[in-house]
Design goal:
heterodimer, A: mainly beta, globular, B: five-stranded antiparallel beta sheet
């Protein structure tokens, strides 16, 4: 049983296109996250949702728009893709939004913008 | 801004030895410090959490220490095995607002048979 799943696993697209990544967790957690891991393997938070409400929005270009239709799902839509968007995007979840919580990560979506 | 530094160079050790990885931070001590393991092509997996008022935490062959004076955490793997080879990430969070983990750059560990 996959705890946190993401689709697609790989995404290769042209500059200027719009793409979406989907994430689902079956852990019953309240809080979900999107992270970006760049080529140097640095993992940085982008967004966090708690019970469908946006609670963390880091300095991310507004071409990135997260959406949480319910607390088990968090999607990421990216408009007008740029070369610098190439990275691995990880979804994660935690039981609550408390700072003591551990996070459960998905397998990642490898995005390559050509 | 907060900086979290881990050894950028890979750590190579012999099987059976103890691996020690370092996580140093600047500015405010975190309320919680976590260690994660990441294998190539996979997402990070949680290993251990230590609180600011704890000096040491153990789980099987893993041990984490937390020194708020030195602003440093050490992560030890005793009796290391080739299967322990992975990248290890430390992550910090503070008791301010919502859960926001700030990750270090990670250290790659290679355990040779």
């Amino acid at each position: 049983d996959t705890a946190v799943s993401q689709t697609p696993k790989y995404l290769v697209t042209q500059m200027g296109n719009d793409k979406s990544i989907k994430c689902e967790q079956n852990l019953g957690h309240d809080t979900m996250y999107w992270y970006k891991q760049d080529s140097k393997k640095f993992l940085k938070i982008m967004f966090s949702y708690n019970n469908k409400e946006l609670i963390i929005n880091e300095t991310v270009p507004n071409r990135f728009s997260p959406k949480s239709p319910d607390k088990a799902h968090l999607n990421l839509h990216i408009n007008s893709l740029e070369l610098g968007d190439s990275a691995v995007y990880f979804c994660a979840s935690s039981p609550t939004s408390g700072s003591w919580e551990t996070q459960y990560f998905g397998p990642g979506t490898r995005l390559l913008v050509l | 801004s907060q900086k979290i530094e881990q050894n950028s160079e890979a750590l190579n050790i012999q099987e059976g030895k103890t691996a020690t990885l370092t996580c140093n931070y600047t500015n405010y001590s975190p309320a919680y410090l976590q260690w994660y393991r990441q294998d190539p092509g996979r997402g990070p997996v949680f290993l251990l959490l230590i609180r600011e008022n704890e000096k040491e935490k153990r789980k099987e062959r893993l041990k984490v220490t937390f020194d708020t004076t030195l602003k440093q955490s050490l992560f030890h793997i005793t009796a290391s095995q080739p299967a322990d080879s992975a990248t290890y990430l430390c992550a910090l969070s503070w008791n301010t607002g919502f859960q926001k983990l700030v990750f270090g750059t990670g250290t790659r560990l290679l355990v040779s048979p």
